Amino acid sequence: MPLHFPRIAAALDDYLARHPEEGEAVADFEEFLSSHAAVFERGHAVGHFTGSAWLMSADGERVLLTHHAKLRRWLQLGGHADGDADLARVALREAEEESGLGGLAVETSIFDIDRHRIPARGHEPEHWHYDVRYVVRATGNEAFAISAESLALAWKPVREIAFDAKTDDSLRRMARKWLDRPL
């Protein structure tokens, strides 16, 4: 177990128990977690942890996605940990900031993980995001407000995302996980 962050290490172990088919990905996350004390800092040049929200509508049928301003793709809401090792809290904070929604509730177990390369932009070199994703639920009004980080926001039907070949692979994977979850 990594010395620096035993709580996230335990959450990754729990995730592995629920998704043994993702053992290689979990091992990559655990290795990175134990590699340096600054893995939750944006300034850690090789990469850093991020927290994302699979933001579900109250009825569980739709997910709120962002047309990301920098990456110009439809993605889940989320962002940098900025030193916070509580990635569920990061996911909730990012969901609130990027959607303008109040009354959101985060589930504390990891929903999905995804390591992806971020291309160089300006003075920022190419680096890895170790993205830990959590289910966040809308419990009240679902009228969102678009932030500066988004070109657009939209509630998208999960069933459509799960089977749309033009949709980002990780979004399809999360949509399928959502549809296959035990009730």
Task: Please explain how this structure is put together.
It is globular and about 40 Å long. Helix 1 (6-18) runs antiparallel to helix 2. The chain has one domain: Alpha-Beta Complex (Nucleoside Triphosphate Pyrophosphohydrolase), CATH 3.90.79. The protein is of the alpha+beta class. Strands 1, 2, 3, 4, 5, 6 and 7 form a seven-stranded mixed β-sheet that branches. The protein starts with 5 loop residues before the first helix and ends with a helix. The chain has helices at residues 6-18, 23-33, 87-99, 158-162, 169-180, and strands spanning 47-56, 62-68, 74-80, 104-106, 112-118, 127-138, 150-157.
Gist?
With 183 residues, the chain is of the alpha+beta class.
Count of spatially separate domains:
1
CATH architecture: Alpha-Beta Complex
CATH superfamily: Nucleoside Triphosphate Pyrophosphohydrolase
Q: What name does the CATH topology carry?
A: Nucleoside Triphosphate Pyrophosphohydrolase
Write the topology of this structure.
Layout: H1 6-18, H2 23-33, E1 47-56, E2 62-68, E3 74-80, H3 87-99, E4 104-106, E5 112-118, E6 127-138, E7 150-157, H4 158-162, H5 169-180
Parallel strand pairs: 1-6
Antiparallel strand pairs: 1-3, 2-3, 2-7, 4-6, 5-6
Helix pairs in contact: 1-2
Notable traits:
7 strands; 7-stranded mixed sheet; 5 helices; Nucleoside Triphosphate Pyrophosphohydrolase; globular; single chain; alpha+beta; about 180 residues
